[in-house]
Design brief:
Number of domains: 2
Number of helices: 13
CATH topology of the largest domain: Rossmann fold
Order of helices and strands: EHHEHHEHHEHEHHEHHEHEH
Structural class: alpha/beta
Oligomer: single chain
């Protein structure tokens, strides 16, 4: 199977190693990966701000770029959710290109867990680790169990990370609480956003976590900013980096 790697714009510009780790991981698992050069932002920032007509051409362009691939894999729950759950108003219901992209776009850990069914990784990471579950990953992609839901769900990100030798898990008190980023929410409600982030960091670091891991780099970008400013002794890493065997730096 040839899959397209869909790299979020903020990862491309600020955290390129997450994209490289995703590529290396997929190729190591035998996947033929292509990176379409024309890809851009998924349009989520505009959509979240209410700029619907500014989102439309971006959605159209994204579908045009990825329509010919068997699958699209993205190391971001929020961008994946945008394509799967929020593109429909921009397309006719019987648009074949749109339905192909919508139905075959996967978050990276979701793809590894559900499609490739990865059961072994020759990777070691001997550190105390805690997991931040992003809101989009839990509430829209159903990558794990959210506290308000009575439906049991596998924690797909945790299942994959459990394949890594040496991880010592640290459990936060509130494992599915929002980090406070929320895209433009962090701009419009900066004080509330920062306070929510501080609460998440205190929960994880207070339990002795060395590394706060998430499948959403947007959450980690927000948390890393607070950690850096307040010099909290905890690191952040994307799940792809651990799964690809990146060491703690």
């Amino acid at each position: 199977m040839t899959v397209a790697l869909f790299v979020p714009c903020y990862i491309d510009q600020l955290y390129p190693d997450v994209a490289i780790a995703s590529l290396e991981l997929l190729e190591r698992l035998g996947v033929d990966v292509d990176y379409p050069q024309g890809q851009t932002c998924c349009g989520q920032p505009m959509a979240n701000t209410g700029c619907v007509e500014d989102t439309r051409p971006i959605a159209k362009r994204t579908v045009e770029i990825f329509a010919d691939y068997e699958a699209v894999v993205c190391p971001s729950g929020s961008c994946t959710s945008m394509v799967r759950h929020h593109y429909a108003p921009f397309f006719d219901p019987d648009d074949a290109a749109f339905t192909q992209v919508r139905d075959n776009t996967y978050e990276l850990c979701e793809y590894l867990h559900d499609v490739l069914k990865v059961s072994h990784l020759d990777v070691r990471f001997p550190h105390r680790v805690s997991l931040h579950q992003s809101c989009h990953g839990l509430r829209e992609l159903r990558l794990g169990q959210s506290s308000e839901s009575m439906i049991p769900r596998e924690n797909k990100v945790r299942n994959l990370l459990n394949l890594i030798d040496g991880i010592e898990w640290v459990e936060p008190e509130r494992p599915d609480e929002c980090c406070g980023f929320g895209g433009t929410f962090a701009v419009n409600e900066a004080d509330v956003s920062a306070e929510m982030g501080r609460a998440r960091i205190a929960d994880h670091s207070g339990k002795g976590s060395e590394v706060l891991v998430s499948a959403d780099m947007s959450c980690l970008m927000h948390l890393q900013g607070i950690i850096s400013r307040e010099k909290t002794p905890i690191k952040v890493m994307h799940a792809a980096q651990l799964l690809a065997g990146r060491p703690l730096r």
